[in-house]
Design brief:
15 helices; 7-stranded mixed sheet; alpha/beta
Length: 471
């Protein structure tokens, strides 16, 4: 049996999945937690990765490995390969003003033309501009900029600060892939080139000498270095989390993935790039050589967490309450911007509950309004993707919240397409394992993905009509 390993270094934890190369069967898994917060010392990720690999039985019998990870996080390195400051994560909104400034300086249409995206607080370029303005002494030290998965791949291969790694701070050995690079706002997924002028603009200095990770193709690989945890192993390029999930799910034309995790995402795999000057749809690249138009919301499963706490119930009981209410929640509408919002771009927004009357204000209606509000925000994202010519035949609903029967059942009433729920799994790690297998053999595997639910399409127009009226 030949084994390959996939890693998902997400916001909250690090997961490792070891799979059989031929069948895709999961042989063993491992996990370790990450600290909370929107600004994190990457050393915690490195420690968690080592713990998760050990929990998964190590790499002694593994032939290839790939790391998928949270996108956009700014890992700034000095010339000695040391992390300059805590990494600002995708959900850190302190760079909202920097995003607005960069957009004004370059223009939204020009940004979309050159990179496929328009800056919002999530993207790496905006965090570099924040660094240049808020911490100029740290910005002056930047010798390389990596993303979380790039940095972890580099460390796994044996590189890092002198005295903390067997091979030392060889910055030119940083590698990445198109999917993660396309979330920086200084990379063009279509040409496959970095835009150094935009990087310099972000850092407010000439960045021509700043090292950026070399972009590998989908089936390319590097090797683990002597004395490293991956000594001699084939190391795939890695990928951003959403691109990894698309690989893990085997998403094809006509499929749109709706992922309900800490954040919410709506994305599809397409043959042509999307360049949306409104910024609603990010024109990312995918991990297979194609494109991944994506809409992200900052408020997804956390909406359900908040309302469940308020009602004093667990998620199962919240779902039961929601299903006891009628579609439309008796006129109660939750606009779920608890932590600001990325789509629409409202970083300082808060949540609002509309339509409260003596009749509508019940536990059941509030529970259902939470589910409807969360899904309506994602349905707006589905509409935005459609406006760019993406066909929607099937919605693949994934993430922890997707397993709640209320969420999948109400999704069939909100989305006007067939909703299917794949078997629960670590699909980002699974996609990274697909990539590891691809790099090892030169052939992309086609492992089976089992479905556990496919509720009948049951569109209830009142849900989105009410939501749109309160938007």
């Amino acid at each position: 049996m030949t084994l390959v390993a996939g890693v998902d270094s997400s916001t909250q934890s690090c997961k490792v999945v070891v799979r059989d190369l031929e069948s895709g069967e999961v042989v063993r898994t491992g996990r370790a937690t990450h600290p909370a917060g929107t600004s994190v010392d990457p050393a915690f990720w490195w420690d968690a990765l080592q713990s998760a690999l050990a929990d998964a039985g190590g790499l002694g019998d593994v032939a290839a490995l790939s790391v998928g990870g949270q996108q956009h996080g700014m890992v700034a390195l000095d010339a000695d390969g040391r992390v300059i400051r805590d990494a600002l994560l995708w959900n850190d909104t302190r760079s909202a003003d920097a995003a607005a400034a960069l957009t004004e300086e370059v223009g939204a249409e020009e940004f979309a033309r050159r990179t496929g995206v328009v800056p919002v607080a999530s993207f790496t370029a905006t965090k570099l501009r924040w660094l240049a303005d808020a911490e100029p002494e740290n910005a002056a030290k930047v010798a390389a900029v990596a993303l979380p998965h790039d940095w972890l791949t580099w460390r796994l291969r044996g590189y890092g600060p002198q005295g903390e790694s067997p091979l030392g701070p060889v910055l030119d050995e940083l590698v990445t892939d198109r999917s993660d690079a396309s979330g920086t706002a200084y990379f063009d997924g279509e040409s496959g080139e970095y835009d150094r002028e935009l990087l310099s603009l972000a850092l407010r200095r000439d960045a021509s000498a700043v090292v950026l990770p070399r972009v590998l193709g989908p089936a390319e690989s590097v090797r683990g270095g002597s004395g490293s945890l991956t000594d001699g192993l084939v190391i795939a390029p890695g990928c951003g989390d959403n691109a990894g999930a698309a690989l893990g799910l085997g998403a094809a034309a006509g499929d749109v993935v709706v992922s309900i995790g800490t954040s919410g995402t709506v994305f599809a795999v397409t043959e042509t790039p999307v360049r949306d000057a409104s910024g609603a749809v990010a024109g990312f690249a995918d991990a297979s050589g194609l494109y991944l138009p994506l809409v992200a919301t900052m408020n997804a499963a956390r909406v359900l967490d908040a309302v469940a706490r308020l009602l004093g119930v667990d998620h199962g009981e919240l779902g039961e309450l929601a299903l006891a209410a009628e579609a439309g929640s008796g006129g109660l509408v939750l606009q779920p911007y608890f932590e600001g919002e990325r789509t629409p771009n409202l970083p300082d927004a808060t949540a609002t509950l509309f339509g409260m009357t003596l009749a509508s204000t019940t536990r059941e209606n509030l529970a259902r309004a939470a589910v409807e509000g969360m899904l309506s925000g994602l349905a707006d994202g589905l509409d935005a993707v459609r406006r760019h010519g993406v066909s929607v035949e099937r919605v693949l609903l994934v993430g922890g919240a997707a397993q709640n029967p209320a969420v999948s059942g109400i999704a069939a009433q909100v989305f006007d397409a067939q909703v299917v729920v794949p078997l629960p799994g670590e699909y980002v790690a699974a996609g990274a394992a697909v990539q590891a297998a691809w790099s090892l053999t030169g052939r992309r595997p086609t492992w089976n993905v089992e479905l556990v639910a496919a509720p009948a399409v049951d569109t209830r127009a009142v849900i989105r009509e009410q939501y749109a009226a309160r938007r």
